[in-house]
Amino acid sequence: MDNRYDRSAEDIGNIVGLEHVNVQVADQPTATLFYVAGLGLTRDPYMMAGVDNMWVNVGESQFHLPTGKPQVLRGVTGLVIPNREALLARLAAVRKPLEGTRFSFAEHADFVETVCPWGNRLRCHEPSPAFGAMRLGMAYVEFEVPKGAAAGIARFYRDIMGAPAIVEGGAARITAGANQRLIFRETEAEPAAYDKHHIQVYVADFSGPHRGLLERSLVTEESNPYQYRFEDIVDPEGGPPLFVIEHEVRSVSHPLYRRPLVNRNPEQTIRAYQPGRDTFW
């Protein structure tokens, strides 16, 4: 039989979803201005509805934004957000309320880059074939890592986490779900101190990575039957940690796996309201 397709091109691997990025923020009203009013995302209406934490939905992923000493991810989070002109208008509208913070935004050929009030960088891309069917979502998280670390990081994710990983252009690129990636880009710059921000992933083979991590004394928290955590990324061939970022690892039997997330249509306004168009989907 003539097999004209590269079937491996559609392999996802063991990490089936990059679910959230968690960074602390100084206060919830300022975070609301940036993430909800500016980016046009949606505060989860069911979970963390108080004033000490906020979960913000972006397609099938989230930002978790607990109140505390602000944390800054050492890299950039890549989002897919439709309608660049509407996004730019929203960001321009929050410029004055966010004066005196680190907020900024700028247009580039392929994306709009914006900085949150506390210094977190985000790249906002329009939907395109590069992101598959994703129309709204968290496409990637890119970390800045020391020179020479990419190959060992790729081996860590391939051998221990069971995720497809390649090294290309000075960066380790790891498949972390359908149309989602973790990217570890080498840089000459001195890495910033780690302030305990974290990411969360779902894995299909829950025990396999746990066993590999446990053998290397890397598990930092046995959270519950559905979750564990680790921080150090190491080369399976040996040596000191290559990068530190806490991973909240969940099984696909976790009660929150694929919980339906509410995503509003940020282009609905009271002055130009269109019935039936409140939700994004």
Description:
The chain is α+β, with helices and mostly antiparallel strands and 281 residues long. The radius of gyration is 19 Å and the shape is globular. 15% of the residues lie in helices and 32% in strands. It has helices at residues 28-38, 84-93, 150-161, 207-215, and strands spanning 15-22, 42-43, 55-58, 61-64, 75-80, 104-107, 112-115, 121-125, 137-146, 165-168, 171-175, 181-187, 198-203, 219-224, 227-233, 243-251. Strands 2-3-4-1-13-16-15-14 form an eight-stranded mixed beta sheet, covered by helices on one side. The chain has a domain at 12-189: 2,3-Dihydroxybiphenyl 1,2-Dioxygenase, domain 1, CATH 3.10.180.
Number of strands: 16
Write down the overall geometry.
Answer: globular
Lateral strand order in the biggest sheet: 2-3-4-1-13-16-15-14
| Rg for CA atoms | 19 Å
Helix % is 10-25%
Short description:
By secondary structure, the protein is of the alpha+beta class. It is built from four helices and 16 strands.
What is the strand and helix layout of this fold?
Layout: E1 15-22, H1 28-38, E2 42-43, E3 55-58, E4 61-64, E5 75-80, H2 84-93, E6 104-107, E7 112-115, E8 121-125, E9 137-146, H3 150-161, E10 165-168, E11 171-175, E12 181-187, E13 198-203, H4 207-215, E14 219-224, E15 227-233, E16 243-251
Parallel strand pairs: 1-4, 5-8, 9-12, 13-16
Antiparallel strand pairs: 1-13, 2-3, 3-4, 5-9, 6-7, 7-8, 10-11, 11-12, 14-15, 15-16
